[in-house]
Structure formats: C-alpha cells, structure tokens
Task: inverse folding
C-alpha cells in the first residue's frame, strides 16, 4: 500500500481512504462502489464489542454488524471475494488480534488479501509483538499520531509506521463535526515536516469541503463516520456517490 | 521484596497489565505516572492525603468482631468496616488520592465511571469538596437499580450521564468515560474507580487503598495477636480486595477474592485486552467481550484488575464465585444476625464464608465490608417481594 500511495502522491494525486464497517448489510457492495468512485484504499472495520475510539455512528454500525452475526473470520472470508484493484486494510481493536494470536491473525489477513492493519488501541510501546508478526507476514501496520503527542514522541511513532501515518484530526472519537478542527492541519503539518511516509488525516473529516481543507496540508484523508452513516441510511449507492463527491473536491 | 511491589516499567504484573490505550491518551498516562511518582514520594502530599482521610473521610475504619455469626458458623469472623467511611464505601480512599493529584496537576474537571454508584458518589463528593467539575457515566441499567446514588451525585453537584450502549452496565460506562477523556484530556483527569485500566492506574489505585490493609493488619494484631488465617473480599475490578490483600500478601494469610458467578473473569482465566489492560476477561470465541450478569451493579463487570490475574496465576490468591441466590441469603443473614446491612457487593464475600465455613472451623476470618447496603435496599425490596 505504501509504495502505491507514494507513487500516486508523486503523480500529484491526493489519497482518499473510506472506512466501511465489515459485516454490515451491503458492506461488500459499498466497498466496490467506493473503489469505483475513486477511493485509493479501503479500511474495512472488523467490529469489536467495545470500540473506545468510536463515536455513536460507528458504534451503532459495529453493534448492528455483530448482531447480524459478523465475526472476524466471516468478514475476512467475505473480503476474499471483493475483487477490487485497490489495497484493502483492516481496522480493528487489539483484543481481536490478541485473541486470535499475532501470527495467526497476520496470516489470516494475508490469506484474505489484506495488506495493512490499523489497531487504534495498540500504541507504540505495546506494538512490538504484533508489528513483528505483521512484518513477517507482509502486513503493513499503520501507526496513529495524535495532537497530544509532544515533539519528541512523533518521530518515534512515524519511524514505526508502514503504509501511511494516521494523523488523528482532533481530540476525540470518530464522528461527524461541523468544521474541521484546527488540530487537523496543525498535526499534519508537524508530521509532514518530519517524515516522507504518506500522512493521512482521519477522525473528524466529515465532508468534501473538510477533506479539501485537510489535503491542503496532508497527503490524504480517511473518512469513517460520514461514509458509514451513508451506508446505514442509503446503502452502497449513497456511499459511491459520497466518495465521488469527496474525490472531486480533493482534486480541485 | 514484597509480592506487591511496584509493577515493571511497562506497568506489568507478571504478564498482566500494560497500557493499551489510543495514542491520544498515551501522553496523559505518562504524565499521570510521573505526577503520581513525584507526589507519592513527597511527604507534603502524603500529609495532605492523610489529613483529608482522617478529618473528612473518617479513617481509620474500625474492625468489628461478629459474635453472633462467628458462633453460627464456627469461625472467628471480623469485619473491616469500610462501610463506615464517608460516602459509605472504600471508594473514597482512592478518589481523595486521585482528586488531590489531579488538582496538583492543574486539572479542572474529573470524569468517572460508576457501577453501583459508590465510586460516582465518592467522586462527586471529592469534586464538591475540592472545587472541581465532575461528570459521571453510569450504565442505564444501573441508573435504574441504583436510583438513590444517582440522586446523591446530582445533589453533590455532578452531572450524571446514563450510558445506553452495549450491556448498559459498568463496562459500557468505562467505555464512555474513556471516550470523554480522549476528547477532554488536556483539562480533565479520568478518576478511574478500581485497580484496572492502563498503567499507572492499577498500581496507583492500589497504593491509595493500601491503607485498608495497613490498618487491618495492625488492628488484627491488636485484637487477636496475629494476622488472620483467611482474608476475604469481593472482586469487581478488585480495588477493595487489593487494598485488604496488600496488608497480608507477605504473610501466611490465605487470600480469597469472591467473584459473582455471572462475572467470574478470574474463574474463567482467559487473558484478553480491554479498557487499557491485559488481564483475565470474559470473551467469546472471537474475542468479543461478554456481558457480565450480577445482582450487584458494582460487580457486574466482565474483566478484573491485572494484579488479581497475576496473584491468581501464581497461586497466591484464590477466586471462587458465588451465585445471586447465595448473595441474597448472605445479605439478609448479616442484617439479621449482626445489625449491619451490607452492600450487595460485599455480601458476596459473606456468601463464600458461609459456604466455606465447614472447612474453616476455628479459624480467624477477616472480611472486608467494602460498603453499606442502603443503596441496595430498594432493589432488595423488589427481589424479596416486600
Ligand atoms: C461497596 C462496593 N464494594 C465493592 C465494589 C467493587 O469494586 P472493587 O472490586 O474495585 O472493590 C463496589 C463497586 O461499586 C462497591 O460499591
């Protein structure tokens, strides 16, 4: 994923990564629609019972998916038949990984054609055993950087980032906001100054205009709650339409 | 060296503990750790804490010998009376420590989770005393069954938010408090209510409850010239138990932590990671956290503090469980035999003592009476159909 992202960036393209909760009704069609509408990668959420980094929309989506019987195994199984040409990443909480076992989970991802993983409750200091297993299986581990990090911490985080650096847009959990927080561009700027790994802003990037604002500094955006809400309310078509709008906005 | 020394630099008790939090919270946990280490080594902070505990919270708490129950059960039963602390439970020990620390760190606001409402009431109380803003998250199910404590918190000037996600109990209240903290970390201290969560909480909260064990050890020696044969406490997150155990962990005393049958995290002994810590955790075959089910809101939690997992794994403490039915019996037994209405949480400890008494004949048993039962009376009126 990182190689592709670097190439696209070099060609002047801004990167767009929609998040879609796996196991939700219509999620596979939504992935295909997002890919067709100009996404550069998809972040597939493997739902967890206790998603502490997520606000109401992704909580609701996670709970709904779990109630419909989604499991890590069923989602990874379904991911195999997605047949999209862009890279697929998963986002899940650490207990899902821990419970499966590091090596086994990394192997399951690789077998499903997943190339990257985002684990938001696994900070740098605890990430060693997972990163080792992921590296060995060829899975890129995306690290999160937060606005609260002192200057001395950011270089340590980006040094361990593979795929891209997830620049957390605000102090808070996922969810739509009226405006882009000033922390979003501020942190992206701090990161851009110290790394050439692609920097994508996620959490609180809620619409096309905010995405446009974020990519004035960052290499791209991750959009979660705004995408998932459209899947919940309008199905895969609504997701495709929204991703198309954002794509258009960040190119202009 | 004591078995309850400091955890490792990464906050490990054996292979349990750690700091599994979103990146946003890592600097806050590091700052808290540094602030706690500094304050704990400062005689002035210790003196201030001691002053508030002795002139406001009512410490030391007494030890009561239960003459009637002792006779019935064939043991010598003593109670460490944490129910007599201000606000009615052991929770105040930790809260006063944390709120003093938060103030020292320049925080203006605290957030807390609560199950039975005792930690929420203690937090609201300390916030009122020390001029802090306070918001308490409480599962919607618990808001219902602990209505008295909800009203107390509001009277004390705190905001109480009912949490409607997940199982709508303590686990979900912790999630919501953490989400609040992620958004407000620059001005807010998360006043966690048990020996759980990310490092340094399990260690820090234990140190604030160590006073229970220290007092109890001295009182035991004064009352019967020895440490008890058995020390028993209920275990939700495990703070009152760790406080009691800390006084006897390096002695010959048998340590027993009693879990509810529907929330027996240690009993099932399956490691997992949630709420910032690696510990025993009730979960399904894919690692989804399971809902606990207990008559007692304060023990209705699928995890447990990491040091308990450690003490269990090395065999130093044991963690049997009791059923709701046994607890209801024990609740009434203590009221009618001793004139003490226990909190439903610590009625778990008595329920185990009643069951195990035939094998403990003649032994001295020290039970932590972690809280008083006033908050549970309305719920028990329903349960007992009166
Ligand atoms: C009286 C009482 N005892 C025990 C507990 C359980 O907590 P812990 O296991 O941390 O002592 C509670 C929690 O609400 C409580 O109110």
Result:
């Amino acid at each position: 994923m990182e190689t592709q992202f670097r190439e696209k960036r070099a060609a002047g393209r801004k990167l767009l990564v929609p998040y879609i909760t796996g196991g939700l009704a219509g999620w596979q069609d939504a992935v295909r629609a997002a890919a067709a509408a100009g996404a550069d990668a998809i972040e597939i959420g493997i739902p967890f019972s206790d998603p502490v980094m997520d606000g109401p929309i992704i909580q609701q989506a996670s709970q709904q998916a779990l109630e419909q019987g989604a499991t890590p195994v069923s989602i990874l199984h379904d991911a195999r038949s997605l047949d999209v040409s862009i890279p697929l990443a998963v986002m899940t909480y650490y207990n899902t990984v821990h419970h499966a076992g590091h090596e086994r989970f990394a192997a399951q991802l690789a077998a499903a054609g997943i190339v990257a993983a985002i684990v938001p409750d696994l900070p740098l200091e605890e990430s060693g055993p997972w990163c080792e297993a992921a590296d060995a299986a060829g899975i890129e581990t995306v690290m999160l950087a937060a606005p609260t990090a002192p200057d001395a911490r950011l270089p340590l985080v980006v040094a361990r980032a593979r795929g891209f650096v997830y620049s957390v847009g605000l102090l808070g959990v996922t969810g739509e906001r009226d405006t882009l927080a000033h922390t979003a561009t501020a942190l992206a700027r701090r990161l851009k100054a110290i790394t050439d790994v692609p920097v994508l802003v996620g959490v609180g990037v809620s619409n096309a205009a905010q995405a446009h604002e974020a990519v004035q500094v960052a290499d791209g955006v991750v959009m979660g709650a705004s995408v998932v809400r459209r899947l919940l309310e309008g199905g895969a078509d609504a997701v495709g339409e929204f991703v198309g709008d954002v794509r258009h906005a960040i190119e202009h | 060296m004591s078995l309850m020394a400091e955890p490792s630099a990464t906050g490990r008790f054996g292979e349990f503990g750690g700091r599994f939090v979103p990146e946003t919270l890592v600097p806050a946990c590091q700052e808290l750790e540094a602030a706690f280490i500094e304050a704990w080594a400062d005689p002035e902070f210790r003196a201030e804490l001691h002053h508030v505990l002795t002139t406001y919270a009512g410490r030391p708490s007494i030890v009561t010998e239960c003459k009637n129950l002792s006779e019935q059960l064939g043991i010598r039963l003593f109670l460490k009376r944490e129910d007599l602390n201000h606000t009615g439970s052991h929770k105040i020990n930790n809260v006063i420590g944390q709120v003093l620390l938060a103030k020292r760190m320049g925080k203006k606001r605290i957030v807390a989770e609560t199950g039975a409402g005792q930690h929420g009431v203690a937090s609201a109380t300390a916030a009122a005393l020390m001029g802090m803003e306070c918001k308490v998250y409480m599962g919607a199910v618990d808001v219902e069954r602990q209505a008295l404590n909800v009203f107390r918190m509001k009277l004390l000037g705190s905001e109480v938010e009912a949490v409607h996600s997940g199982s709508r109990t303590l686990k979900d209240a912790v999630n919501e408090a953490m989400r609040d903290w992620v958004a407000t970390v620059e001005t807010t201290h998360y006043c966690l209510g048990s020996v759980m969560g990310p490092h340094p909480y399990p260690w820090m909260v234990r140190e604030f409850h160590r006073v229970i064990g220290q007092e109890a050890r001295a009182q035991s020696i004064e009352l019967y010239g020895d440490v008890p044969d058995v020390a028993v406490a209920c275990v939700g997150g495990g703070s009152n138990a760790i406080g009691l155990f800390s006084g006897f962990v390096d002695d010959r005393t048998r340590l027993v932590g009693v879990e509810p049958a529907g929330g027996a995290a240690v009993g099932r002994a399956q490691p997992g990671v949630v709420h910032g810590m690696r510990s025993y955790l009730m979960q399904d075959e894919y690692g989804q956290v399971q809902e606990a089910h207990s008559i007692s809101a304060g023990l209705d939690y699928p995890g447990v503090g990491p040091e308990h997992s450690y003490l269990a794994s090395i065999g130093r403490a044991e963690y049997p469980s009791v059923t709701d039915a046994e607890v209801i019996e024990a609740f009434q037994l203590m009221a009618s035999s001793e004139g003490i209405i226990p909190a439903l949480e610590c009625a778990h400890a008595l329920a185990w003592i009643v069951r195990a008494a035939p094998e403990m004949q003649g032994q001295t048993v020290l039970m932590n009476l972690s809280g008083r039962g006033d908050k549970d009376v309305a719920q028990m009126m329903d349960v007992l159909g009166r």
